Amino acid sequence: DIQMTQSPSSVSASVGDRVTITCRASQGISSWLAWYQQKPGKAPKLLIYAASSLQSGVPSRFSGSGSGTDFTLTISSLQPEDFATYYCQQANSFPSFGQGTRLEIK
Amino acid sequence: EVQLVQSGAEVKKPGESLKISCKGSGYSFTSYWIGWVRQMPGKGLEWMGIIYPGDSDTRYSPSFQGQVTISADKSISTAYLQWSSLKASDTAMYYCARVPRATRIHFDYWGQGTLVTVSS
Q1: pLDDT per residue over A60-104, tens digit each?
Q2: Edge-to-edge order in the sheet of strand A4-7
Q3: A34 and B61: CB-CB below 8 Å?
Q4: How distant is the Cα of B120 from the closest Cα of chain A, in angstroms?
Q5: Strands, DSSP E only, in A1-106?
């Protein structure tokens, strides 16, 4: 099984800040990584797939990068609606998710 | 517009059976895999399995193999997740989601979730 580890587990930031969340795979997964956003009481929403491809309709302030074992999700300028929990998910083999990163308002 | 609409919340007792549903619309239901994802209270996401409604080819996460059954009825564009004997530890939110490709699985559209509560 491929284990996915996100850091930090939680982060506080202000509107307008640039935020980066990191995801590390326990073994190489090429570029087979997706990122999701989940707000309380709602289903997850796909943001990024194949490490850096922006899902249709997702604002361009979201970007993803990385390959192999280390990946990042960057939000270039936080908006009020971005405060949520973010999950990475490897797609190289049977899917597995990171534990989540809670993005809170400072 | 792609939509996945799940059945409503369920409250069951341990040992009871249950089947929840996920109805797809706005796309060719038989051309995309559907996956199921569990989220236990206050916890993260866990992939359970996927099904291809076109031919009912099904693949399970090793963690859920034998614990649940995934099925589909392509005539009504609906996928199902069922339990034969529920346990308290099955209490969770269950999401269905569309899988845009059979390999390198990720989930592009999600249902609203079905909350299953198992309590005596």
Answers
A1: 999 999 999 999 999 999 999 999 999 999 999 899 999 999 999
A2: A4-7, A19-25, A70-75, A62-67
A3: no
A4: 25
A5: 4-7, 10-13, 19-25, 33-38, 45-49, 53-54, 62-67, 70-75, 85-90, 96-97, 101-105
